[in-house]
Design a protein that fits this description.
This protein is 59% helix and 0% strand. By secondary structure, it is mainly alpha-helical. The protein has 2 domains: 100 residues, no CATH class; 42 residues, no CATH class.
């Protein structure tokens, strides 16, 4: 089993969230994943790494380690039931996705922080091809359909 590939997966994820590829975040991921034994299967990487990024961003590296510890329990149970991995580690993949969502829910304060981040404004400015001299007006609604 291969361990989690931090380089490629983080960069792919970072295209939609520029802060995800910082070297400090990669170091935090490496520290969290260091104790992961023989590693998580390659099939789970595409959901595990963004999930780990999400829970670390939500709280800290210790919370990321808790996320991985919980996923390891799911992986151990799945390996006991399917030692050859014939099902593609479907349960670990689902658990990686939903556990991250449960552990790092988007409350109104978190959503407001994300909407006010400098990296978001830079991304929006690039998307609409606005120059530094252009006035950019963004309207964010916390409840869709309510002005």
């Amino acid at each position: 089993m291969a361990g989690v590939n931090l380089g490629g997966a983080l960069c792919r994820y970072g295209h939609s969230r520029p802060t995800a590829c910082s070297s400090a975040r990669k170091d935090t991921h490496r520290r969290c994943l260091k104790g992961s034994g023989d590693g998580f299967p390659h099939e789970a990487q595409d959901l595990l790494v963004p999930g780990l990024d999400r829970v670390i961003d939500f709280q800290d590296a210790a919370y990321g380690e808790l996320y991985l510890a919980r996923l390891r329990r799911v992986l151990e149970a799945e390996r006991a039931a399917d030692p050859q991995g014939e099902q593609g580690f479907a349960m670990t993949r689902k658990a990686a996705r939903f556990l991250a969502l449960w552990m790092a829910f988007d409350d109104i304060v978190r959503v407001a922080r994300l909407k006010c981040s400098a990296s978001r404004f830079e991304r929006v400015r690039k998307e609409v091809r606005a120059s530094e001299d252009d006035v950019l007006h963004i309207v964010d609604l916390f409840k869709p359909g309510i002005p």
